[in-house]
């Protein structure tokens, strides 16, 4: 079963590489505003997780700069996710705004939130 998951994960990564979405084009000032807004966002993820790929594709499509953290291969990030976020579940977007930290876990919720950033900015 572990081999099947590994193999399917590699297929997902290959298809993601082949069909990488294009980023939105914005004016420089609008892009800088979004970059400033997302500079404190962290995406905790596993590389080959299909839901994580979905969120990373949305980040790319929206043209956002969000730091990704591999919670599978980095014990520090995994511990942060467990202790601060409450559970080791990916994808998880850590949103730090005005000193308040929010942990968002569902991929569809994360994608909707990221798509709404452009409208809010």
UniProtKB/TrEMBL annotation:
Glutaredoxin domain boundaries: 43-98
A UniProt-annotated Pfam family: Glutaredoxin
Domain of life, per lineage: Bacteria
Protein name: Glutaredoxin
Organism: Pseudoalteromonas phenolica
Lineage: Bacteria, Pseudomonadati, Pseudomonadota, Gammaproteobacteria, Alteromonadales
